[in-house]
Protein 1
Amino acid sequence: MLKGSFQTRSWLALALLCSSSACTIGPEPDWRPMPPAPARSEKLAERTRELYTALSLGQVDRASLLYSQEPGRVFVGITGNEFKTASEPRGVALDEFFVEPGSQIVPGDLIAIADREGGWVVDRPTVRLKNGTELHIRLTLVWRDEYGIWKIVHSHASVAR
């Protein structure tokens, strides 16, 4: 008899413990379907190739059109001095581009991904300078859909070794 009442009390205590834990967590949120998973984006790959072409041709104004003019844009260049976080609207300065006009940027393993209003590109392009020198670059671009137009909000480039 004593053993049965002990088991009953143990189950009751466990039930109370579980119910009190559920109350402290709160109610379940309303069910919502998961958003689509990030997917490859030919549009961002195309916009990145547009950037490469504009830079290769030395068309700073054309390349600047691909960059956001919204506050928060960040540029991190190849050297330690190239770290710009100014948020005022402006064109992209020539020193923000890591190639001189007349150089050619050849895409490497370009991967472009979009996820609703944001996207990113990672690539290992080769930059062929006018003097024939080749630089192997690691490049990351973060894109944001601004009113239906993909714009670069962050870029980082470093020389691959």
Note: The helical segments are 2-25, 42-56, 60-64.
Protein 2
Amino acid sequence: MTPSVLLLIAAGLGFIAWIAARAKASAFRSSSRGALHSLPSYHGWYAALWAAIPALVFALIWSNVVPNLALQSALADPAAQALPMMDMERNAILSEAMTIARNPDQPAFNATAQALAMPIRAAFDRLGLIGVLATVVIGFAGGGLAFLRLKPDFTARTRVERVVLVVLLLASLAAILTTIGIIASLLYETFRFFQIVSPLDFLFGTTWTPDPIAAPGPDTGKTYGAIPLFWGTLFIGAIIAMIVAIPLGLMCAIYLTQYASATVRRWMKPLLEILAGIPTVVYGYFAALTVAPFIRDFAAAIGIANPSTESALAAGLVMG
């Protein structure tokens, strides 16, 4: 049973809970003399969250636990007695057995792996069925508990908005923690780098030919000079790209503000804003695969010797 099936079951249980709770809240509206505290849709979302979230959490945990449980079950099978004692060979055979268990059409290179694949597959089927039943029970239990708590004066809207607030807070914290992790990783690697390469050699060196395979030595800093990188960035971004961008940008701006009709302006302005929002690295990928080979072939056609796809002209044109 794949994890996606458990996730679909959890989502389906949440949808069922949403329909049932919304119907119950609508009945409150028609039978109750007073006004409902929250709209029926909020009652539905409250029950859906109680049904789906516990089931989703269980599905995610179970999906990560199942491979280990299936492996332990296979190791208890008599076929596991043929496994070698060396950890490297043993792990390779078990990994092959897991692959064959998930893909029966996969050819087997080891007889022991083929023999272990059947008990692993049987364990997967058994554990998958257990996971489905447990997901359904947890979803129905959570949705049923929420369904029983629904009343005309129940503060469903407040509770749902609190859950949404917590989700948004976790999402923002994830972005912040990711940024902190990136900065910490960069600082750590920078510290390690400058333990090997002198900052003076890096900042004022004129040769950039790093060799990650070579062992660090006294001459390592001479191959990590950053001036070619600085000059390449300046040459591509501030010279070639500006030669392209300034006249084109001015002409586009003048046309859109002075000559273009309202219809053209309504279409072109969002398109230009979308182009401006695409990361430069995406343009660089396009330049490397499309524009650079075209410029190389054009240079060869007009007689330039030894043209290369590593072209500053291609990068500058596309960036501009």
Note: The CA atoms of residues 19 and 173 lie 32 Å apart.
Protein 3
Amino acid sequence: MGTSKTAARRLDAAFLKRETLRLRREGATHGEIADTLEISRSRVHKIVTDALERLARDATEETRQLRALEAERLDALQHALWDAGIDGDLQAVDRLLRIMERRAKLLGLDAPSKHAATTPDGEAVANAVIVVPRECEDVSQWVAEFGPNALEVDSEPQD
């Protein structure tokens, strides 16, 4: 029993897609991939772009699901402590507030924070921009997560 022309084209398309993405992962340029696989650069671009968009959608959906799961966990913890907090248990109140802060960070409810850029000596750096993700409480937390070289200060003025 032979394969249909449609099935053969699907196999060829799947092979091109797999090979295009493999070559791109290995660092080949769109032009190099097009030459190697004997397809147009625009076809290479479309295959790579489609794959990246699919990954972004998958990551966004996974992130949404993880946020929902974490929010449910925070809800369960808050529910378990609520009566004690309402009855005046200060330790429970403290924990409830921490749960609420965590929820606000998780859901992006807090406004982003701004920080002035300084040198290690504490002097202000002109024209510097630091973006601190909402999840980080302060710059030191961000530096701790991303390393001591995360904030490099260029002391030379740029033209």
Note: Residues 117 and 128 are 6 Å apart (CA to CA).
Protein 4
Amino acid sequence: MFGKVAYLLFCALMWSGNLWSQEKTYGILERTGQVLPADVILLDENSRQVRFGDLIDKPTLLSFVYYECPGLCSPVMNGIAEIIRKSDLRLGIDYQVITISVDYKEPVSLARSKKATYVKDLHNANAQYWQFYVADSVAIKTLTDAAGWVFKRSGNDFVHSAATILVTPNRMISQYFYGTFILPMHFHLAVNDARAEIANASRVKDQKYCYNFEKPTNETYSTIVHSAGIGVLVLAAFLFIWLSLTPTPRQYSKDKPIQ
């Protein structure tokens, strides 16, 4: 009996857990070895339309952020600036950096402001090879879906993972870097692999997430999912108690008369 009850409780927990996971539509779904689409139009800091495929001619460190992010986007970009400073590879020659906003509402002026800030802080003659872009919602979704960089809007902000993506000269995803810090030696080896069109599994997969803790205005679906999960757990608990209190039929021996 208790085995059956334990099995029912396990099924209830798994079902409610699956309902919860359906809401978590964000994170990294690695697409290592996949080629990113070329015909995606972006706007640079000077409001010029550029084709994504025309930008990629060398190993490229690709980052998706949004410029007014109150959380991990700035640490991600600071981590990029740090690897530019510490790496013995030459920005603009050995590799380049492309940063794209995932918020289609952000204007070109924000991309221009971010680029000016990091170019000034880097004190690097080739800092202009770190390029900042904005795009419309279709272009953003096309690129992020292809890259496996899954995010969702939460109020005025976004829930997303902190990760950058190394792309080969032929736009193939070579490797993912999780978090906000990249080891210089790791980066050097990864760029060499990307230059040779080699795709590698990520060495470290410690995902960090940027959340918006403000309560969403529309919680209908969330309430239904959570209520359903709680209902299943309550039902399973009730079943467990009911079966525990139900008397077990007495077993009698064939050789012993009933008293």
Note: The chain has a mean pLDDT of 80.
